């Protein structure tokens, strides 16, 4: 292990760490010594925080170090920087307020070394794909020198976003074997992955590690975000993930004025998933037999395949870097809204046909193996198809910089649908036909919306409105026949 990445927990550990740092031939991109008198300002501290945090990310280290009380010759001279403990503790909030993503120190350590007071700032690595900025500016290191973060380094950190492995980051460090098996529901892990249950504790832990649920380090175990997100007995046991639990809320009527009940879903996603689909189904009237995830049952007004696929999508595609936000399911009298934090990576109008892109590929892969969602790329197709087959209004896809939302509507007659409902149904029907190698026609749209054959002009008006909205185009623009014309989505 790198001398820089040693993780101190006691005064003895800190002194041993300082011995190793002072024995280095020179400062590094992960280590800075300062005498740092009282004149060392918060902006000085912030620039070093940004630089060392970015370098820790690039060097794949758990932390970098800023040490006060050592001069350029690596002589221990001590420091009077904020000599009172409250003065040091307040720095965490001061730094977090002016850094990107509200990053702050892992910890600030005071230690007496060689008869002098030293202060060690333990600085976390920049988040995957997100360089650490101080007041909007990015800093880095060139050997021992503080510099602006080079464009090459900036792009290297940002490029991680395409291959971010938030799932492999550590949710809880240094746990005993017994504690790991208390925190994670390992029996559900083996049952849902359809694996034989090992007869030894070592065998249990090896299988968890093979699936990236835990990592072995220094004779202890680290639980990964993936392991906690899927199999935590309680997500609140993991500080960074407590706010990522799914919220399921039922409302009276069609607004959020009156909440009927909120269903706790505080365990890992794999443990809560089936129950969420079942709970929604049990509280809605049944109407048709269908096969649902993991079992047979009478389906509610919303096909369980639609619910399970959209809930899974919300979990898979959420932005875990979004602060204080979690996936949420809001159930109203006439609709269900499924929302996840984060702007989608593709245009919501192209959800049905576009090759899928996920921020969280390991989570997505695990959930597919657990039969929590459809095969790659087929999910939204199935959602739209199921809505058509059950004569439900077309789902509405919405997005902003902060969230992605899908709205499922309960059954409505053609006469109860407004213009937007009809245009949305027409566009999605054309998309579904296109990805199936066919073209939409007036007749196929009538069948989709339950319009009588004699009323084909009504379907023609919807097609005209959808073309005017820029969502549809005729296969043959020169054709004079509306009844027999064929149509494509705008992107085809």
Would you write up a description of this structure?
By secondary structure, this protein is α+β, with helices and mostly antiparallel strands. It folds into 4 domains: 3-162, Schlafen, AAA domain (Methyltransferase, Cobalt-precorrin-4 Transmethylase, Domain 2, 2-Layer Sandwich), CATH 3.30.950.30; 168-242, no CATH class; 250-409, 2-Layer Sandwich (Heat Shock Protein 90); 414-489, Orthogonal Bundle (Arc Repressor Mutant, subunit A), CATH 1.10.10.10. It is built from 15 helices and 21 strands. The two termini are 54 Å apart. Helix 9 packs antiparallel against helix 10 (304-316), helix 12 (379-389) packs across helix 13 and helix 13 packs across helix 15 (456-468). The strands form 6 sheets. The protein has a 6-stranded mixed beta sheet, covered by helices on one side.
Number of helices: 15
How does the major sheet shape up?
Answer: 6 strands, mixed
Reported by name, the CATH topology of the largest domain is Methyltransferase, Cobalt-precorrin-4 Transmethylase, Domain 2
Please tell me what the overall shape is. elongated
- Are there runs of 5+ residues with pLDDT below 50, and where? 285-300
* Count of discrete domains: 4
Give the DSSP E fraction (strand runs of 2 or more residues). Answer: 15-25%
Specify the structural class: alpha+beta
Number of strands: 21
Quickly name the level 1 CATH class of the largest domain.
Answer: Alpha Beta
| pLDDT averaged residue by residue | 87
């Amino acid at each position: 292990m790198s001398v820089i990445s040693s993780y101190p927990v006691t005064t003895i550990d800190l002194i041993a760490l300082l011995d190793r740092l002072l024995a280095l031939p020179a400062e590094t991109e992960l280590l800075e010594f300062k005498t740092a008198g009282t004149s060392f300002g918060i902006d000085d501290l912030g620039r070093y925080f940004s630089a060392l945090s970015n370098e820790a990310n690039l060097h794949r280290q758990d932390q970098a170090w800023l040490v006060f009380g050592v001069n350029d010759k690596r002589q221990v001279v001590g420091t009077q920087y904020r000599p009172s403990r409250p003065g040091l503790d307040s720095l965490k909030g001061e730094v977090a307020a002016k850094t990107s993503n509200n990053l702050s120190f892992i910890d600030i350590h005071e230690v007496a070394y060689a008869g002098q007071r030293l202060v060690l700032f333990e600085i976390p690595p920049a988040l995957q794909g997100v360089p650490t900025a101080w007041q909007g500016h990015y800093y880095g290191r060139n050997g021992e020198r503080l510099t602006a973060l080079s464009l090459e380094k900036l792009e290297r950190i940002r490029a991680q976003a395409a291959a971010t492995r938030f799932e492999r980051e550590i949710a809880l460090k240094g746990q005993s074997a017994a504690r790991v098996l208390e925190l994670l529901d390992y029996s559900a892990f083996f049952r849902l992955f359809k694996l034989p249950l090992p007869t030894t504790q070592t065998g249990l832990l090896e299988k968890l590690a093979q699936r990236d649920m835990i990592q072995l380090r220094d004779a202890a175990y680290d639980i990964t975000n993936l392991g906690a997100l899927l199999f935590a007995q309680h997500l609140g046991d993991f500080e960074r993930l407590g706010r990522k639990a799914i919220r399921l809320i039922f409302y009276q009527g069609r607004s959020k004025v009156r909440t009927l009940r909120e269903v706790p879903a505080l365990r890992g996603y794999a443990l809560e998933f089936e129950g969420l689909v079942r709970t929604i189904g049990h509280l809605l009237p049944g109407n048709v037999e269908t096969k649902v995830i993991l079992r047979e049952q009478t389906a509610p007004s919303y096909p369980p395949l639609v619910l399970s696929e959209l809930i899974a999508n919300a979990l898979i595609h959420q932005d875990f870097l979004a602060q204080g936000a979690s996936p949420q399911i809001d159930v109203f009298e006439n609709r269900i809204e499924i929302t996840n934090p984060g702007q989608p990576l593709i245009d919501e109008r192209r959800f049905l046909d576009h090759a899928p892109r996920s921020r969280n590929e390991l989570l997505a892969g695990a959930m597919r193996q657990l039969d929590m969602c459809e095969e790659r790329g087929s999910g939204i197709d199935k959602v739209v198809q199921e809505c058509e087959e059950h004569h439900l209004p077309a789902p509405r896809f919405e997005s902003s910089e902060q969230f992605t939302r899908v709205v499922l509507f309960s059954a409505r007659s053609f006469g109860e649908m407004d213009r937007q409902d009809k245009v949305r149904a027409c566009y999605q029907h054309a998309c579904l036909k296109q990805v199936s190698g066919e073209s939409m026609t007036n007749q196929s749209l009538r069948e989709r919306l339950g319009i009588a054959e004699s009323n084909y002009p009504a379907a023609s008006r919807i097609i005209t409105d959808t073309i005017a909205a820029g969502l549809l185009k005729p296969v043959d623009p020169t054709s004079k026949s509306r009844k027999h014309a064929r149509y494509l989505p705008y992107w085809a």
